[in-house]
Design goal:
It is a single chain. The chain is α+β, with helices and mostly antiparallel strands and 252 residues long. It has 2 domains: 80 residues, Phosphorylase Kinase, domain 1 (2-Layer Sandwich); 139 residues, D-amino Acid Aminotransferase, Chain A, domain 1. It is 29% helix and 30% strand. It has 6 helices and 13 strands. Strands 8, 9, 10, 11, 12 and 13 form a 6-stranded antiparallel sheet that branches. Helix 1 runs parallel beside helix 6. The structure holds uridine-5'-diphosphate. The site of uridine-5'-diphosphate (UDP) has 14 residues, from strand 9, helix 2, strand 11 and strand 13.
Length: 252
């Protein structure tokens, strides 16, 4: 006997599908094996990636929830690439925290990859593929009125807290959290929750024990840079996290 019945497909994104359930307070997220990069100009199917990202996200959401950080996560589904979450109105913002310079930051500013950023940088991007997810200024954010100034501060504080906790967790299993992106949403009651996923698709993670600048990469940069071994790297991240975290619970 399951606690819910699956309903129709509500939304299909690049890496996940969101399905309704017969309960208004629950939606089901299916993680796909599809990989995309560079605003979907580069595409592939990587068998096993969906399950790994689902399991990694579940474990990280449960870890953060245990530390009092509000998330949309409710539990894993019966299938390994499914999870149950609370429905939220996702704010079209990509909130990026950077502990070390990498990726777009190094393309846009004279900062060599790996430059430590202390305090970590918090960059907000407007989430809209048609515009290429542009970096926002405070004035542009205010103009778009996506959030109030108070919510903007609340979002940054939450992102920095997530960074502190994830950095500590990854460090405990020999991984360096270089940067990551989170998305947030509001419940019907107006509560701000961490939403979407937290996985090697959305984080840069380097193996602390490996010096080589390519071999140490355990995240989506392996796909972006055609380094191979993408699923193996994600598997390594899950294996390490399993050493530090309990098995995520199945929603019933
Ligand atoms: N990121 C993401 N989705 C995006 C853009 C970035 O998850 O649409 C993540 C990315 O994986 C990295 C961090 O956000 O961990 C910072 O990405 P960056 O701005 O350096 O852009 P990129 O180099 O990925 O184009």
């Amino acid at each position: 006997m399951t606690a819910f019945q699956l309903g129709p497909l509500l939304h299909e994104g690049k890496a996940k599908r969101v399905h309704a359930t017969d309960r208004s307070d629950l939606v089901a997220v299916e993680y796909k094996d599809d990989a995309t990069a560079f605003n979907a100009l580069k595409k592939a199917s990587l068998p096993g990636k969906g399950t790994l990202n689902c399991q990694i996200s579940a474990l990280l959401f449960e870890h953060l929830a245990g530390l009092g950080i509000p998330t949309h996560y409710m539990g894993l589904g019966e299938s390994a690439n499914w999870m149950l979450v609370r429905p939220v109105r996702v704010i079209p913002l990509e909130v990026v925290i950077r502990n070390l310079a990498a990726g777009s930051l190094c393309r846009e500013l004279p900062l060599p990859p790996g430059t430590p950023l202390d305090p970590p940088l918090c960059d907000l991007y407007y989430k809209d593929d048609a515009y290429g997810d542009p970096l926002l200024t405070e004035a542009r954010l205010e103009r778009l009125q996506l959030v109030t100034p108070e919510q903007r501060l609340q979002i940054e504080a939450l992102a920095r807290r997530v960074n502190d906790e994830l950095r500590r967790l990854f460090d405990s299993v020999g991984l360096l959290l270089v940067d990551f992106k989170i998305e947030l949403g509001f419940t019907g009651a107006g509560e701000l929750l961490l939403a979407d996923e937290i996985s090697p698709d959305t984080c840069r993670l380097w193996d602390q024990a490996v010096a080589d600048s390519q071999d140490r990469i355990l995240d989506k940069d392996r796909f972006r840079q055609d380094l191979g071994g993408v699923v193996e790297a994600y598997g390594q991240v899950l294996k390490r996290l399993q050493q530090a975290c309990p098995e995520p619970t199945v929603y019933r």
